[in-house]
Amino acid sequence: MTKNILVMPGDGIGPEIVAEAVKVLEAVKQTFSLDISTDEALVGGSAYDVHGDPLPEVSLEKARAADAILFGSIGGPKWDAIERDKRPERGLLRLRSSLNLFANLRPAILFPQLASASSLKPEIVSGLDILIVRELTGGIYFGQPRGIREENGERVGFNTDVYSESEIRRIGRVAFELAMVRGKKLLSVDKANVLEVTELWKEVITSMAAEYPEVQLSHMYVDNAAMQLVRAPKQFDVIVTGNLFGDILSDEAAMLTGSIGMLPSASLDENRKGLYEPCHGSAPDIAGQGIANPLATILSLSMLLRYSLERADVADAIEKAVERVLEDGLRTADIWTDGCRKVGTAEMGDAVVAALKS
Ligand code: IPM
Ligand code: MG
Predict the structure, then answer these.
(1) Can you give the residue ranges of every domain in the chain?
(2) Which of 64, 132, 163, 165 is the most buried (most CB within 10 A)?
(3) What is the mean pLDDT of each run of 10 residues along the chain (358 residues)?
């Protein structure tokens, strides 16, 4: 049966990096005789410019119909001043929420070839392999009421952090299952000493542990977890947490690898339909220059094949090709060091395709 991938390049460097991932997709379609069709849709600021909406109905419909979505990045200074509901970020948030993409997997893996790119000492990060499981459709990102109102002659801003037991259990299950196929260690991150919503979070996650006797479950307050991530990150295997803490900790974990430009992510629903995007943003400062690193997007395509299309063999081949290219010393500017060959976005994509075919 034909699988349908919707490509959503977005803004900033999005179109450039997604173009390289599409090259890789075309190559594996040929090599592995994959029956995949692709379509494209606007999202973010570029959709706002055309439709006056960062997630127009036509894009949402295509996203609903697709088996998986390959996403670039959204946002940029051009759209910072428009009304809040029309900002590019709202397009992505609505897409996550409309498709029920509640499970966000963000691996932080240190490629051995890039060990020197980390700002931490090599012995602290070498061999690093953490998976952050971030709840993506609840918590303070979506809680009501929210807004900015007038009170006693001044403006007051407010948001609501809210999780139901079923929301916590559903993300907990994903995290426990992933821990089972990895190092069997799960850390749940909360702020249960202050926030009731995370007191409940901790209680529900704890109540699930009996179903997974092989998994070693532990808990940390978010401030301590942020500190431990830079002190001794290799103590972690799988980390599960809510939307806001996950947003922050996943950027921190990404930077441990020295190269946020390398890190993919998956956002999955209950049936493993997913949206796949690089962890980095739209980097408007370098957009259009052909120097952005396309590897996080190429690795996002690899996750797409692994999780939504169940083709681990193809995913492995792409990941091996990326390692080959790094091994050969090719680097985009963000990960370049002395003695390596600096290449642009397209040259990096071409090199991955060549490595796949050789
Ligand atoms: C991320 C981003 C988004 C988020 C923004 C762009 C809305 O930071 O995917 O981590 O906060 O979730
Ligand atoms: Mg973020």
Answers:
(1) 1-104+270-358, 129-256
(2) 132
(3) 96 98 98 98 98 98 98 97 95 97 96 87 93 98 97 98 98 98 98 98 98 98 98 98 97 89 95 95 97 97 96 97 97 93 98 96
Same fold, 1-104+270-358 and 129-256: yes
- The residue whose CA has the least distance to atom 11 of ligand 1 is 247
- Tell me if residue 141 is catalytic: yes
Could you confirm whether 247 is annotated as catalytic?
yes
Structure tokens at 179: 């821990």
Cα–ligand 1 centroid distance for 246 (angstroms) = 10
Cis peptide before 278 (omega within 30 of 0): no
Residue of 78, 86, 234, 251 with catalytic role: 251
Torsion of CA 244, 246, 252, 253, to 10 degrees: 180
**Active-site annotation holds for 316:** no
| Ligand 2 ion local residues (Cβ < 5 A) | 247
Architecture of the domain made up of 129-256: 3-Layer(aba) Sandwich (3.40)
Minimum-distance ligand 1 atom for the alpha carbon of 251: 10
- Specify the CATH class of 1-104+270-358 in words: alpha beta
- Residue 101 has phi, psi (to 5 degrees) of -85, 75
Given 11, 62, 67, 141, which residue is catalytic? 141
